[in-house]
Amino acid sequence: MVKKLKTGKQLYDLYKGKFANIDRDTGIVCGYDAVDLVIAVTSGEQGWEYGDEGVVKMTHSNNPKGYLFVTERNVLNKKEEII
Predict the structure, then answer these.
(1) Which candidate among 21, 60, 64, 77 keeps its CA 20 to 30 Å from the CA of 12?
(2) Closest Cα partner for 40 from 11, 15, 19?
(3) How many Å apart are CA 46 and CA 5, to the nearest integer?
(4) How are beta strands 56-57 and 25-32 bridged, if at all?
(5) DSSP letter, residue 75
(6) Is residue 8 scored above 50 in pLDDT?
(7) Quick one: pLDDT at residue 61?
């Protein structure tokens, strides 16, 4: 049995507003593309800015530290609600 991969939108619906980290950067899940999540960087290095085609930003549309792509494995506290 092959497990079907979730789309970026499905992942966003599961993890929106949760924190995620990648390398030394941390941020809040704020959007998605076809297969990945997008975080608004809150600490760490500067992420990329605007204009990436296919990216949907639901919140944090003017984040001064930029954005990064993450996968489901980068999401922290998957079972806890983060307010």
Answers:
(1) 64
(2) 19
(3) 29
(4) antiparallel
(5) B
(6) yes
(7) 84
Q: Give pLDDT tens digits for 20-39.
A: 999 899 999 999 999 999 99
Long-range CB contacts (within 8 A, 24+) of 74-81: 74/20, 74/21, 74/22, 74/37, 75/15, 75/18, 75/19, 75/20, 75/29, 75/37, 76/18, 76/19, 76/20, 76/21, 77/18, 77/19, 78/15, 78/18
Instruction: List, as one string, the DSSP characters of 23-52.
Output: TTEEEEEEEE-SS-EEEEEEESS--B-S--
Spatial separation of the C-alpha atoms in residues 49 and 18, rounded to whole Å? 20
Q: Which range, of 8-12, 18-22, 23-27, 43-47, averages the lowest pLDDT?
A: 43-47
> Rounded to two decimals, what is the model's pTM?
0.82
Which H or E run contains 19?
Answer: strand 19-22
